[in-house]
Structure formats: C-alpha cells, structure tokens
Design a protein that fits this description.
This protein has a single domain, classed as Clc chloride channel, CATH 1.10.3080.10. The chain contains 9 helices and no strands. The longest helix is centred in the N-terminal third of the chain and has 63 residues. The radius of gyration is 23 Å and the shape is globular.
Length: 247
C-alpha cells in the first residue's frame, strides 16, 4: 500500500514538473516573440521618422536652390545605382517581391540572402538618401523587407541559444517580420495579418499558428502604443483648385 502511494506520488510529481516546464517554455517563447515584434516596430518607427526628415530636407533645399535639382537628382540616382550594385546587391527593389521570393525559395544557402540583416539594414540609409535627393521612393515596401530581416535575425539568435522558436520555420519567421513591418509602416495591425495570409502565404505552405499572427498584431499595436493611433492618410490640406489643370 505504501509503495503504491509513493509510486503515484512520484508519478504526479513528475507530471506536474513536465507541465510546469511546458508552461514556462511557452511563456519564454511568447516573451521572445513580443521582443522580436518590438524590434520590428522600433525599426519601422525609426525608419518612418528618418523618411520624414529626408522629405523635409528635400523640400527645403529644392525650394531654396530649384536649379540644383537638375544636377543633384541624376547624379544622386547614378551614385545609388552604383553603390547598390557594388556593395548591397540584395537590397535593390521595393522590398516586398524580395520577401516573397525568399519565402518561395527552397531551403538552401541562398534562401535568406534577400533578407539577411547585415545587407537589408542598408535599405534604411539608402532610402533616406534617395528621399533627400528627390527620388520617387517610399519607405513602406522597404519596411516589409527590413521587418523580415529583423525578425529572422532575432529568431536565429533565439534558436541558436535554444531560447525559443524551435518549432517555427524560417518561412514563418520571415512572414511574421514582414507582415509586422507592413502593419507598423501603415499603422494598421489587422492589415498586416491580411497581407501575410493573402500575399506571403500564396503558393507556399505556411502554418498560420497563433504565434505568427500574434507576432504580426503585436508589431502593429506596439507602434500604435508608441506614436498613437494616427491615420496613415492625413486630412488633405493642399490646393482645392488648380488653374489650367487640363493643360
């Protein structure tokens, strides 16, 4: 009788120990997911602020020296083309096609080249420079690629030291970061989820687990918490009538 009692006591002890370990592991993984989403939101926030500075600086110098536009813009575009081709070949393009290509590529050494953090981070200063010289570019597409690179780098770090994300594939980390970057760029968390499902998951097997969707929503809502729930398209304050518009 005593042996049976001790046996059952040990059984329940080990069972509770496994359940506690499982809960603590899930908690740690959720915390790591929130940290990754925070990184994505902060990078998107910094990117947005830098882009605003670039546009303001362009408006200042082009208004003060209007003739300089004809020299600065073509020379600046030539420099950007040369620099990108020579030093950062994987950051060319808007950013979204690069993320979709990375998700669809097979698992080999080239799969994450287009979203490698050390390369992709160049997207931010190069986009800023392009805005300063007056190039017709935006930060929204690049924010998607930067978000994918940030989340993938964080996920690889966590997996390397066995913190979390052992059950998430590379595709799921890329999709979480990319959709989180879009949600933060447009200040629209739900749009990030729709983008992830409709665009990033098209033609490829992605498991839309709670972790993936929570990561996307967290990145969007963290940015809302930082800068407020401001609309992406503000109230129009420009001209309401343009003379000779038909010309």
């Amino acid at each position: 009788m005593l042996r049976s009692f001790i046996f059952h006591l040990r059984y329940f002890y080990h069972k509770k120990l496994r359940q506690t370990h499982r809960i603590s592991h899930k908690t740690l993984e959720f915390v790591c997911l929130l940290i990754g989403a925070t990184f994505v939101a902060l990078f998107s926030f910094g990117f947005a602020k830098l882009a605003d500075i670039g546009l303001e600086f362009n408006a200042y110098w082009s208004a003060k020296y209007p003739l300089a536009v004809w020299i600065v813009l073509p020379l600046g575009l030539a420099f950007l083309t040369w620099f990108t081709a020579k030093y950062t070949p994987y950051v060319g393009g808007s950013g979204i096609p690069q993320v979709i290509a990375s998700i669809n590529l097979p698992y080999n050494g080239y799969k994450t080249k287009l979203v490698e953090f050390r390369q992709t981070i160049w997207k931010i200063p190069l986009t800023f420079f392009a805005m300063v010289i007056g190039a017709s570019v935006g930060r929204e597409g690049p924010s998607v690629q930067v978000g994918a690179a940030v989340m993938l780098a964080w996920g690889n770090f966590c997996r390397k030291y066995n913190f979390a994300f052992r059950g998430l594939s590379t595709n799921e980390l890329i999709a979480t970061g990319a959709a989180g970057g879009l949600a933060a760029a447009f200040n629209a968390p739900l749009a990030g989820v729709i983008f992830a499902i409709e665009e990033l998951g098209r033609g490829v097997m992605l498991r839309w687990e709670r972790r993936v969707l929570l990561g996307v929503l967290a990145a969007g809502f963290i940015l809302v918490a930082i800068q407020g729930n401001s609309p992406y398209f503000p109230a129009y304050k420009g001209a309401t009538a343009i003379p000779y518009l038909y010309l």
